[in-house]
């Protein structure tokens, strides 16, 4: 859709809209981290990040805030699809990515709490299938990451549970706000409310009306990449709600259920519950925000009948976010045209792997201008 943009003045063109050395589309965790790490490497280069929203408007500020490496049932399901080597490499990447996130942002700047993660089971057979693998998976993780006894079987609220002792929770909004403050301090320019409507060669069209010609570009738009480049990444909508305070709320920590398709955590005495995409997979393969009533009902039922919170609980707010999924859940970093890179397909793990993906991108960008 064409929007009417006033003529830009000489000063605006010279000082504000000058084509930068590096132009990054998308101000989520990947785009913002590319800007940060690139600026650290090349402090003299001019860097602009553009986002179509007033704030990041994709997944980075709309997620559940799990700083996690994943549950055993999720790993077992992934091994069936992608093979053991890929999955253990990915767990390693998630673990190293979380360390990078914590080092870069600082725990205090994102309210990191080391809660531990719990996978709950309502089916004894599924619990046995997963718990039978604990020793083997622990041994592999000890060999690869020097982490002992990551997973252990226990009970929580009467359910059989596999605890993961290395996981925690963050405040995603605060983490992203701090990251953006770091960009401002580093001298990165940020253009909000600036949809990039097409990218061709070294030209990017902003808002269907203004064209810039940066020396290099990074498309960090994850689930929205199909609008700008041909990459095998499918959008996937994720849904979350938060309740009003619940009396005697006892679920404390971060929790996984059903191969990671359902997740919940406490926010003090409130429940944050999300996921359920597997209940309506085709409908959720979309980059449009919105609520799927089938999924919402499923999650409400889960809260009442599995978490057993009083049925008169009230939902305070709900929202959706858009992820980008690849066939085998591996992110794609690809030069789609000379000096135009795409980084997409974080496959629902962006808190853990987002900064590492950004580091990879920066290492691949040519240094000459
Ligand atoms: C409901 C939900 C729960 C999740 N929970 C977790 C979790 O607990 N732990 C975890 O590790 N991961 C989680 N994730 C995944 C994680 O949030 C993502 O993997 C990560 O945020 C992806 O970051 P990104 O920077 O690649 O993309 P995004 O954060 O989506 O950023 C892309 C940005 O590009 C902008 N954009 C898009 N198109 C254009 C355009 N044409 N022009 C300009 N700007 C554009 C968007 O506005 C957006 O800000 C969750 C995701 C969702 C949706």
UniProtKB/TrEMBL annotation:
InterPro entries: FAD-dep_OxRdtase, FAD/NAD-bd_sf. It holds the Pfam family DAO. Residues 21-359 form the FAD dependent oxidoreductase domain. It comes from the Bacteria. Coiled coil: none annotated. This is FAD-binding oxidoreductase. It comes from Rhodohalobacter sulfatireducens.
């Amino acid at each position: 859709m064409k929007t009417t943009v006033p003529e830009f003045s000489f000063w605006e063109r010279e000082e504000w809209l000058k084509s930068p050395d590096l132009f990054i589309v998308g101000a989520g965790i990947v785009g913002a981290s590319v800007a940060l790490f690139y600026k650290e490497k090349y402090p003299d280069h001019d860097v602009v990040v553009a986002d179509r929203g007033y704030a990041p408007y994709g997944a980075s500020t709309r997620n559940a805030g799990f700083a996690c490496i994943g549950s055993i049932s999720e790993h077992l399901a992934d091994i069936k699809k992608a093979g053991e080597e890929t999955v253990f490499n990915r767990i390693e990447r998630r673990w190293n990515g979380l360390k990078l996130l914590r080092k870069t942002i600082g725990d205090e700047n994102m309210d990191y709490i080391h809660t531990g993660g719990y996978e709950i089971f309502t089916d004894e057979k599924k619990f046995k299938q997963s718990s039978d693998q604990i020793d083997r998976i622990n041994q592999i993780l000890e060999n690869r990451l020097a982490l002992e006894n990551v997973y252990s079987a226990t009970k929580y609220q009467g359910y059989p549970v596999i605890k993961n002792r290395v996981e925690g929770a963050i405040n995603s909004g605060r983490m992203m706000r701090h990251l953006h403050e770091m960009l401002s301090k580093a001298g990165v320019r940020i253009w909000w409310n600036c949809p990039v409507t097409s990218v061709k060669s070294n030209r990017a069209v902003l808002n269907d009306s203004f064209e810039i010609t940066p020396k290099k570009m990074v498309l960090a738009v994850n689930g929205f990449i199909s609008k700008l480049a041909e990459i095998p990444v499918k959008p996937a909508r994720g849904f979350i709600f938060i309740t009003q305070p619940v009396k005697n709320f006892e679920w404390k920590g971060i929790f996984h259920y059903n191969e990671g398709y359902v997740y919940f955590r406490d926010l003090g005495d409130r429940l944050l519950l999300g996921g359920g995409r597997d209940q309506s997979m085709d409908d959720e393969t979309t980059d449009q925000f919105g609520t799927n009533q089938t999924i919402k009902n499923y999650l409400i039922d889960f809260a009442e009948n599995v978490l057993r919170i009083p049925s008169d609980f009230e939902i305070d707010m709900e929202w959706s976010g858009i992820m980008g999924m690849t066939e085998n859940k591996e992110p794609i970093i690809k030069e789609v045209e000379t000096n135009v890179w795409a980084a997409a397909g974080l496959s629902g793990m962006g808190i853990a792997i987002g900064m590492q993906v950004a580091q990879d991108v920066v290492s691949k960008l040519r240094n000459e201008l």
